[in-house]
Amino acid sequence: MELGALYDKEKRLTGRVHGRGEPREPGEYVLGAGAWVTDGERLLVTLRSPEKNSWPGYWENPGGMVRAGETSEEGCRRELLEETGIQAPPGALRLLESRRDDRFCAFFDSYLLRLPERPAVRLQTGETADYRWLTPAEVDGLCAAGRVAGPIREDWALLREKLIAELGGGIIKENK
Predict the structure, then answer these.
(1) In the prediction, which pLDDT does 90 show?
(2) What is the distance between the alpha carbons of residues 74 and 82, in angstroms, rounded to a whole number?
């Protein structure tokens, strides 16, 4: 069973751990981390496996729960490698946003990974069922159609303009 560290409302470690799916005490938070991967033109999204307990069959960016003993960046790198086979070198991820979501009692850290070209993607059985490289407009379309997992849809709404600005405003092409 994966164990995640528990945090307080201020994102301070409590010294306690939490097993996935186990109940938590009020005021206990977990940490999730995800990567927005780009080749300079499009963003990588993955389809959650139909076997997943939450949001099966919905699109998301690669990521997941940070394990106890990992930093947010280490957890993001591990999840990216597990779910897609993409190895992000240490220091290659750039933190875009860290937010607290009281509905899920979780913190979500969103990173940017710029790659010079599209790498081969290897999907993880039971986690990811498909992948696509999409323009921001195409991600918007999936969101509008209700096909993106709720927490990721919220991240997208918060980060869309920032992602484009971080990429120089014109590097990701809207219509390709």
Answers:
(1) 83
(2) 12
- Distance separating alpha carbons of residues 3 and 133, to the nearest angstrom: 31
User: Cα–Cα distance between 33 and 94 in angstroms, integer?
Assistant: 12
Is this structure's pTM higher than 0.85?
yes
For the chain, domain boundaries: 3-166
Beta-strand relationship, 63-65 and 59-60? unpaired
Q: What is the pLDDT of residue 116?
A: 87
Note the pLDDT of residue 169: 52
**What pLDDT, on a 0 to 100 scale, did the predictor assign at position 162?**
86
Task: For 39, list phi and psi in degrees, rounded to 5.
Answer: -100, 10
Other C-beta atoms closer than 10 Å to the C-beta of 23 total: 7
DSSP secondary structure letter of residue 29:
B
CATH class of 3-166: alpha beta
Regions in the chain scoring below 70 on pLDDT: 166-176
- Name every residue whose Cβ is closer than 8 Å to that of residue 158 and which is 6 or more positions away in sequence: 97, 99
Let me know: does 43 contact 137? Beta carbons within 8 Å: no
Cα separation, 161 vs 167, in Å, equals: 10
